[in-house]
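Exercise 7. Predict the joint structure of the components listed below.
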Amino acid sequence: MKTEKILGRVGRGRSGSMASLEQENSPLIHRRTATQVLNKGKEAANKIKCLLQESFPSEDHGKNSMIGFLNEEILDSFSEALIILTSEGAPETPLDQASTPCSDEQGSDHSSKKRKVQSGRRNGYRRRAHPYASTRVLSKTMDDGRTWRKYGQKDIFSSKHPRSYFRCTHKYDQDCQATRQVQRSEDDPSMYVITYIGEHTCRDPTKSPHLLPPSHQRPPFIISFGLETAQDDQQEPQSNSPHSSILKQESDEEVVSDPSPGSSASEFLMLPDLGTFEQSAPMAPYMETVLDQCDVMSDVHSSNSCLDMEFEIPFELNEIDDVFSLDHDKLFPD
DNA sequence: TGTATTTGACCGGT
DNA sequence: ACCGGTCAAATACA
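Solution:
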């Protein structure tokens, strides 16, 4: 009945198989499937490990060791999750504990047609689990060239204007974690304060992947898992519509740094020349990425739900291609 | 009919 | 307990 509709539309599961499984309402099946998925991931991580060893046979210092280390972390995480899942005493799997939307209708109060949310509807609800950085932008328009889907609006306690919440349209089809919050500016209601959280890991088909800035403009290269750093490079200066300006870059935990000396007094970091923002805009994701590196690195351990790892490597992008493309066939033999 | 938005409820962090 | 972020049923729209 309703459940089917929700599942079909919203697609809460990360994959089709997950969604279909949810209809079964069986914690056991959920666990089994989760185990399979985790095994898959573990397998993939193992392959990466092998490939790394082939690519960097002898040494394991410097960046290679970092890659290896992170790979080990991934493997460990998978292993741990598997242990938790398969241990007999494991309670209903945490992620799925709430996946019985219909089964526990103890109250069964269907009387009011106003939606009554059963306990357990929050299927794997995670709040602020990601250590994503946020980028605040002041814009005249909400349109930034990206496709967003509004998922909520809130009146904010200390604010005159409500805040709207958007997620990337490709959240479910491409597992893109980018979200943004839009609120009218207190000072200038004709402007929007847009806070971007997370980065696009999706490839928006409406966008052409050609706008890579020249390599000399890029910061040292960053491999990003979960964050879109590399991919976003290829996209239009998304968050940076011609009208917008970056105001502030901050991590979730703290303001990492203020790249412009002397601007600390202002709440936001204003770019010097808004007219040329379109040109400077592509650097925004890089700035953010670079600024976030420390935080993200330090958060790798604590974040199991999403792999947000990025690290700096000192070789050119095409060298990365060399490294990874030669592995591609092995990784994806079909 | 499928997709997007609205909006009250739920839930986590503080 | 409060606030803010997210979920998801209901609704609007194409």
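Discussion. Residues 2-86 of chain A form one domain.
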